[in-house]
Amino acid sequence: MYILIVGFGVLSINAVDSSKALKQLIWISASLPLIIVTCSLNRTFYERFSGLFYIISVLLLAGLFIFGKTINGATAWYSFGAFSIQPTEFSKIGVALMIGNFLATPKLEMNKPSTLLTAVAYLAVPLLLIKFQPDDGSVLVFSAFFVGLLIHRVWMVKQLFIIGIIFLTLFILGIAYTDLIQYLHNNLYILLITTLCIILIIFIIFRFIFYIKQSTLYLIAILGVFFCIGTIFASEAIFSSLKPHQKDRIEILFLDDTDKKIRNEKNGYNLYTAKSAIASGELHGKGYLKGDMPKGNIVPEQETDYIFTVIGEEWGFIGSSIFILTYGIFLLRLFWLAHRQRSIFSSYFGYSIASIFTIHFIINIAMVMGIFPTIGIPLPFLSYGGSSLWGFTLMLFIMIRLDAERKQILR
User: Fold this and answer.
1) Which element (helix H / strand E) includes 80?
2) Measured at the alpha carbon of residue 237, what is the angle toward residues 235 and 243, in degrees to the nearest 5?
3) Which of 11, 94, 175, 381 is deepest in the core (most CB within 10 A)?
4) Side by side, which strands form the sheet with 74-80?
């Protein structure tokens, strides 16, 4: 399936720019020795030297501020002539190996706060370096490492994960319904009555339906109500603190991108052309190399972040659906490999890389279709770029190597 997806990626890139497709083939050829070396090393090697991999990845990220090259406003690349390397793609491997090794420490108690704090500390160092580049897309991708902590039941991760989802949902609602929030702000008595009604409903449900009498649960529920209301009202203040381009990318989701004024703006133009390219493919698509958008160089970054627009235009709804289904099977396979591991180290690494692939896949396609704000992250094995290709290839084949030795580990 790896060969199938990578090959389809080259074909898609070739539809946009044949010279870049040739470069991608060079990166693919150069990855073959990496695959051979990766598969020849055993599990103990990755576990024993996980600390070294982590340190090297951190040093490479830190070195960007001295030797790095700035592209599109982010100092995230080392440049070597016509080629560039983005160490962020490799730092994901170092972090996954390091936290996996830490969780595999003998007699480590998962239900202690120190376990979560240590894991977060390992994650925070590269995360801060990436944030200062700045590369917000990669910062978001690093949230995948919490999935492994959640699966292994590390202290409070489940609760924090739920709170984070609630906060994000309420934050978006606070932005989407600005007029309503402003109305409640100007009419505090209505807000007070609404809040008291919600608390009363919770009390009735707790007391007369579930027969709950613990005062602690009532207190938590009341605090939860105030947390939700406070988050909604704080959304505007938080939103105002974002950078202009970040605000534009969120606002465009709630605007009519067919409006000519919005279309002419940068973010509106990107989203409009991307959605137009996908829609133009209709049911069956226009056929390979017969798309109009790639020829006219209309969609920005079409060979990288917007590569899915090529699939949508040339292969249509049917082809896009087959692609999404195939990739979905690939992702499920990764999670299945992670699930059947017998060691905590292999299991955590597996869930981490499966989550990273999934986040890249979902967010990339969602942003192209206008469901998620535009964030510069590639579609694994499809988007043009040597760093992402090598990074994802190493993740995949390290996992394959770890899985090959799972039967040698006693439960």
Assistant:
1) strand 74-80
2) 100
3) 381
4) 69-71, 74-80, 83-85
**Amino acid identity at 72:** N
CA 220, CA 317: separation in Å to the nearest integer? Answer: 47
In sequence order, the β-bridge partners of residue 75 are 70
Q: Give the integer Cα–Cα distance in Å for 262 and 281.
A: 23
**Tokens for 348?**
């955590």
Tokens representing 101 are 């090794």
Neighbours of 51 (CB within 10 A): 15
Q: What is the pLDDT of residues 141-162, one digit of tens each?
A: 999 999 999 999 999 998 888 8
| pLDDT tens-digit readout, 315-335 | 999 999 999 999 999 999 999
Asked if 349 contacts 98 with a C-beta cutoff of 8 angstroms, the reply is no
DSSP state of 205: I
Mean pLDDT score of the chain:
87
- Local structure of 83: helix, strand or coil: strand
Q: pLDDT of 225-270, one tens digit each?
A: 888 888 888 887 888 777 777 777 777 777 665 565 555 555 667 7
- d(CA 188, CA 196) in angstroms, rounded, equals 12
User: 90: which 2 tokens?
Assistant: 């490799």
| Cβ-contact 112, 103 below 8 angstroms | no
